[in-house]
Amino acid sequence: MLVTATSGTAAARINGITLHSACGLTVGQTGGATRDVDGVRLPGRGERFVDGRSRMDWQEKEVLVIDEVSMLGARTLHAANEQLCRLRGSARDFGGIPVVILCGDFHQFRPVQERSILLPSAAVPWDEDRAFAAEQRRQHDKAHALWRRFTTVVVLDEQMRAAGDPELRRLLGRIRRGEQDRSDLELLKRRYQYGQTPLSWAAENGHEGK
């Protein structure tokens, strides 16, 4: 099984790796990668060579987990699917991996610079140069069709993190649905610790010498 997520932070929390890293997709500017105007960088022809070690590793995978699916852009899903087909030597969806699990909550963050997999290309805005639009739409629609082929859905409807605090659970539910009211603000104000020194967050040894 390989556990991945759409962001580094989400991947770290589940002891996984990013989907881009797992599939060998480029994110930064590189010489061989092709860059499209929505910020997605797909492997260039010179980068599509699949070495034996990578192919062997992927041949052994039977389960692929992708967490934080709300942030999964359509063209990233398309690129990952194409790459997995190459890595596993199969034209089947995700290269024929037997089990693919997408996890997430679409009330959370949307894709960065990309379009969501939830909608077909006809339902999302395309204001880029027409020279790019046709290929982008094609890739988007292939990814959307792939997403629609997931027909088994498991809904987790119990809030475990706030299970022991009904008031907090109701607050979180209203925030999730965008239904906050004045009472929610008052509740948060009552929980504020006046006179306390706030926590200071810093990356790697940020407090040294201070």
Task: Give descriptors for this structure.
two-stranded antiparallel sheet; 36% helix; 210 residues; four-stranded parallel sheet; 6 strands; alpha/beta; 2 domains
Task: Write the H/E string, N to C.
Answer: EHEHEEHEHEHHH
Strand order of the largest sheet: 2-1-5-6
Indicate the low-confidence ranges by residue numbers.
29-35
- Terminal Cα span: 44 Å
Q: How would you describe the shape?
A: globular
Number of domains: 2
Spatial extent as radius of gyration = 21 Å
The whole-number mean of residue pLDDT values reads 82
Helix/strand structural class: alpha/beta
| Range of helix content | 25-40%
Query: Number of helical segments?
Result: 7
Oligomer: single chain
**Main sheet specs:** 4 strands, parallel
What report would you give on this structure?
This protein has 210 residues and is α/β, with parallel strands linked by helices. It has two domains: 147 residues, no CATH class; 32 residues, no CATH class. 36% of the residues lie in helices and 9% in strands. The chain contains seven helices and six strands, in the order βαβαββαβαβααα. The protein has a four-stranded parallel β-sheet. The protein has a two-stranded antiparallel ribbon with strand order 3-4. A hairpin with a 5-residue loop joins β3 and β4. α3 crosses α4 and α4 crosses α5. It starts with a strand and ends in a 19-residue tail after the last helix. About 3% of the residues have low confidence.
